[in-house]
Predict the 3D structure of the following.
Amino acid sequence: MHILPAIDLLDGRCVRLLQGRYDRVIEYEDDPIAVATRFRNAGATWTHVIDLDGARQGQFSSLEALTRIVKETGLHVQFGGGVRDERAIQAALDAGAERVIVGTRALEDWEWFSSVAHQEEWKDRIALGLDARLGKLAIRGWTQETGKSALSVADAVAGWPLSTIVYTDIARDGLLLGPNLKAVRAIAGTSTVPVISCGGVTDLDDVRRLIELDLAGIVIGRALYEKALDLKEVL
């Protein structure tokens, strides 16, 4: 299991969106490379990088930052935000991403996502992003609701050669309220694909509770930036 410190990029800066809302932004640092370097120096081997501009607009703006993070820190990167077609997937992989998260297009075009997920050259390189608000999935940078259940979609990809499901509880994300353990437990118990939990981690007790759920990873964001958690201690 991996701890993945988060780097959320908006206009090139490291930020957090409270509950995924673009009108509730906390800005932290201007240099994502320096942030990634600190994560590496603390002992991290992975980082979770999200292009928030891409998530909202459907077009990358952070590939240069992705490339520099990989080259200058050696971290493995889980990258998402605005991945809407095969060209975008390959561009992110070529820029150095270890795995690429597909969310919006997967839920809008299931046949396309199935074909992408089963392409041999991308086996175990594609992650499915499931971002849920009260159990129902949201898309396009969490600005639109789908009405689809996170559990039903997780069940639908059973046996697929995906690297992970990245499950985010939108209501907890960025608020330091603790993870939604019930929802994470349900997804992890349903899915045959490894699950990474994202959203709400506040303290070491949260980390310990999530570890008990047999996850593939835990994404931690705001608690690290605001020093409620020490990454080295978590690791």
Notes: The mean pLDDT is 92.
